[in-house]
Design a protein that fits this description.
This protein has nine helices and 15 strands. With 334 residues, the protein is α/β, with parallel strands linked by helices. It is globular and about 60 Å long. It binds nicotinamide-adenine-dinucleotide (NAD).
Length: 334
């Protein structure tokens, strides 16, 4: 059986997701929500969505009456995730919400509570948990093959452009590089060690006279300490390009570069003091289709998603601590 998805927000990332329904086994797109009826019609034609599945932000709540929609996928700017998740739950729909889950941990808590009260699933769009190279790196890091993980380094960033975009607007983005791209470094440190950090320290560098950074941070480096004694050094940047991680154990290491791209992620390992490419295992599905089908299967079987709302909330709480550490120049316990 294929469950029906409504895609809310037809921007850049929706363009990445929509073609991937073609490779799904349990998911299909049955509705589109857009501020532009013309755009919605154009996309409807391309992806085979019927006229009755087209909504605007104003008519969105009537999606409750559409039996073809099981799941609402919120692909809007971060600052709108909270509102649309609450409205979707009130309409009796399950929710897939993009990362970062919300602007604040308090919003994330309300989203979890709203979905729970409505008896609906909530999953966060952490696609790397469904991506073959990342899954293999997790397996290696947690299997003991490189010994006990001692140090993780994770770097994510890109040089951001147009100062007028929503990613640089505090109300719509919730913060700067950390909310958008540094969250991949945080996620990697957590899923590679399989642990929750107990302490964070952070340092920020932002040129507030740069028109891009009037409201949000540029670069913020942070360190995490885990219960096993593993440490993570993480980079988050809107001023430089990074996409890699490495887990160093007491017997070896595994690294990835690119690490969290849409495709082409590559792994390497240290073997007998030599660096070797490590093959990425064949996966039955690409990360996007696997992510979409995972939530559909969770809805059909009643199982909790592996990256449920609680996983998004954990990141939001750590992000809050990272900002506090950078602001007050001190270590923050979690
Ligand atoms: P985008 O700017 O390309 O698209 C945003 C969409 O929201 C547009 O269609 C826009 O019209 C609509 N929108 C509605 N109200 C708006 C408003 N007030 N201001 C601005 N836009 C408004 O952004 P995107 O890159 O598609 O990002 C959307 C979400 O997806 C974000 O939360 C982002 O973090 C997430 N994302 C995730 C990944 C991933 O790999 N998981 C990749 C990119 C983006």
């Amino acid at each position: 059986r294929r469950l029906g998805y409504a895609i809310v927000g037809l921007g850049g990332y929706a363009d990445v997701i929509l073609p991937r329904f073609a490779e799904c086994r349990h998911s299909r797109v049955t509705a589109l929500v857009s501020g532009s009826p013309e755009k919605a019609r154009r996309y409807a034609e391309r992806y085979g969505v019927p006229e009755r599945g087209l909504y605007t932000y104003e008519t969105f709540d009537s999606i409750r009456d559409n039996p073809d929609v099981d799941i609402v996928y919120v692909v809007l700017p971060n600052g709108m995730h909270h509102e649309y998740t609450l409205r979707a739950a009130a309409a009796g729909k399950h929710v897939m919400c993009e990362k970062p889950m919300a602007n604040t941990a308090a919003e994330a808590e309300e989203m979890i509570a709203a979905c729970r009260a409505a008896g609906r699933k909530l999953m966060i769009g952490y696609r790397c948990h469904f991506e073959a190279a990342n899954r293999e790196a997790m397996r290696i890091a947690r299997s003991g093959e490189i010994g006990r993980p001692r140090v993780v380094t994770a770097e994510h960033g890109f040089t951001i452009g147009d100062p007028a975009q929503w990613r640089l607007n505090r109300a719509l983005a919730g913060g700067g590089s950390l909310m958008d791209i540094g969250i991949y470094s945080l996620q990697a440190a957590r899923y590679l060690t399989g642990e929750e950090p107990v302490e964070v320290t952070a340092v920020e560098a932002t040129d507030r006279s740069d028109p891009r950074f009037r409201e949000v941070e540029d670069r913020i480096n942070f360190q995490l300490r885990f219960p096993s004694g593993a440490l993570a050094n993480c980079v988050s940047s809107y001023g430089s390009n990074h996409n890699r991680f490495r887990v160093v154990g007491d017997k070896g290491w595994v690294d990835a570069e690119p690490a969290t791209a849409y495709s082409g992620n590559r792994l390497r390992r240290l073997k007998d003091w030599r660096t070797e490419d490590h093959p990425v295992p064949e996966a039955p599905q690409n990360q996007f289709s696997a992510q979409l089908d995972h939530l559909s299967q969770c809805v059909m079987t009643g199982v909790e998603p592996i990256v449920a709302g609680e996983e998004g909330l954990r990141d939001m709480r750590i992000i809050k601590a990272i900002y506090l550490s950078a602001r007050e120049h001190r270590a923050v316990s979690l």
